[in-house]
Amino acid sequence: MEQMNYSQAMKRLEEIVKQIDSNQLEIDQMVEKIAEANQLIAFCSDKLTKADQEIEKLWAKGLPSEE
To answer: What is the model's pLDDT at position 6?
Structure first.
């Protein structure tokens, strides 16, 4: 998953949701898909948090001093 980017992770997550919604998975497969989805959600959340932090740093550097 480390070599995956945010867009790829979201696409995979959408695929998993479709598979789960189709009700065609066996219970063992569903458990595996849910576990994978949880990992993807954590990955995407981490990417968004890091991006937000970077944006805030850049924003702070671009603002004039309030002194």
So the answer is: 95
